[in-house]
Amino acid sequence: MQSKQALALLSIALCASVFAAGTTEDDALNLADTTKESAPVETSNWRLFTETTVGRTTVHQSGQPDTTEDTERLSFDLLVDKKLTPELRAVFSDRLDLTNQSEALGQKTLNSLKETYLSWQPENDRLLDVGRINVRYGAAMGYNPTDFFREGANRSITSFDPNAIRENRMGTAMLRGQTLWQGGALTAILAPKLADQPNNGDWSPDFGSTNNRNRWLVSVSHQLADNFNPQLVLYGDQRQPVQMGLNLSMLVNDATVAHVEWSGGRQKSLLAQALPLSPSVAQDEAFRNRLATGLTYTTASKLSITGEYHYNGAAVDKAVWNALRTSSTLDYANYRELIDEQLDLTTRQAAFVRASWLDALINRLDLTAVLRYNLDDHSKLSWMEARYRLDKSEVALQWLFAANDDTSDYGAMAQRRYIQALFRYYF
Amino acid sequence: MKPHQLSLFLLGVLLSACALAQGTPQPNAQAMLQASDAVRNPDKAFGVTVTLIEYRNGKQTDTSTLGSYAKSDVRSGQFRTLIRFVAPARDEGKLMLKNANDFWFYDPSSRASVRLSPQQRLMGQASNGDVVTVNLAKDYQAKIGLEEEIADGNRQMRHSTRLDLTASSPEATYNRIELWVDSANSQPLKARFFSESERLLKTVYYRRYQPQLGKERPTEMVIIDGLDAKWVTVMRYSDFVYRDVPDVWLQRDYLPNFKPE
Asked: What residue ranges define each of the domains in chain B, with the CATH number in brackets?
């Protein structure tokens, strides 16, 4: 009798679950039935957004006690990308940052002419571009040894997320030709000298930062096998012998991508470049390697984590770095200035982690965290952001913290800590 | 004939009937899957607009619009797809390319092309695999499951054949799929997608059949999440058009140059 009762209860439970499944699927289909026809969305030739921030920053200046100041920023970012004829395309991109901050943190008004170029494509597989173009090479995320045109490209750094740093930078004036075939491409770039020195003028196009010497680049890539599409780069610069580069990213499994980015060539050390007249610094050229390699893993819950190891064979090693920090202040300052300008690694080795979680905890909320860790002096930079996406706008809260002593890689940053709220609106 | 001889004769007839029944050619499952693919996917390179509307707990929470350009690879027979984000404004101009198991993402703001894993998501609603064009017959081996009457996406009873698909290529996104197709014309009606651990990932209804590019094709997919049935994504297809999709478009190095008419 008991077994009959159990069987009856089991049957009821099974029926109920089947009924429940049917009901929920019906609910979903009913919901879909109520979906209105969407108005047609036209592709646009331009994008404009404005961004405003308010925050509090702990300002650090060497030899002085830290101070706290309130900062505000208003930015406008415009991108126009239009086909003038079927073969001719015009691209213009500009960003204006108006900042209320002390001189220690940077300029108050800064316009960055990011791109302005014409692209002529007489055939699908042949292109010729002329103008200021943001050319970016590199498979890695936190450090790009093959991104040879990064030097001097950032007039204004408004975020420490590497993605944002790339978005806000200026291109280089160049002539670029490209030919493509199925699975591959050959690109050649000539970037001439247009000015001698950087121009800090608020509205200057500042070609002196991006085009202060003659340079060229050739890259070739080809899909040699499924999942194997290496890119080789050759870079010429009148200041040094030809440099080589390699980019490769490969799928490890459904959730993991591995990448490696390498550059190498004969050149002077960065210390020699920063202190060309110093008798105690060897000025010889040697073959120096740079490397960034790592993995990106994505969970089923839309959390992507990238971990990278960075190596810079041209930078000072731990012993020289420790000596530089404690000896000449001027030499130390000159070295750091060169590193900032070249967006290079300060010392020999570093680690980088970036975690990005889409729709975290609640729908439309994205959380991002970045950690940079100098493996030679153990200083670190942490940056976190919570961003909520609305239909035409975004609100975000950002937090930065740089740790370690005054002369360490990240401890020496002027912005030691900040917290800021951000609002972005797309027109 | 003695009784035991009769019994033996009847047993023989029964066994022969069974053998014949087993030997009777069943409908060809793989051919039905191919026919079902041909209902969803035009036979030549084409463009289509995809609108995604996401619902959570009965409320619309997100929407986005994509332009899709798809072309079959002569070598593999599988589609290669280039997706252009049209809306919302923050994503305008972003591109995603799927070529075999290679996913590339291009952001015009940073001019960077980044390789993605199939699991990496670019949008909240659907997976990358959902928005690209796929010939299931190229990546899955089909077997006839069972013939049954099921309610289609319009809650109409249809005589259907359930095809049980198992991944047969490393490019297959799912471990196993149950696909119900109309027994008469192989129109896909419903599918259930399973992970390697046999977890139901999602249920999809194919509906709103309309004449598009010479055939009745589904113009709406209703995707119901396997864990949370109140997470529903409606994918609508519009503006089907045959169009030239040059091979050079469908590679990483072309992405910065892509600017459709």
From this structure: 41-257 (2.50.20.10)
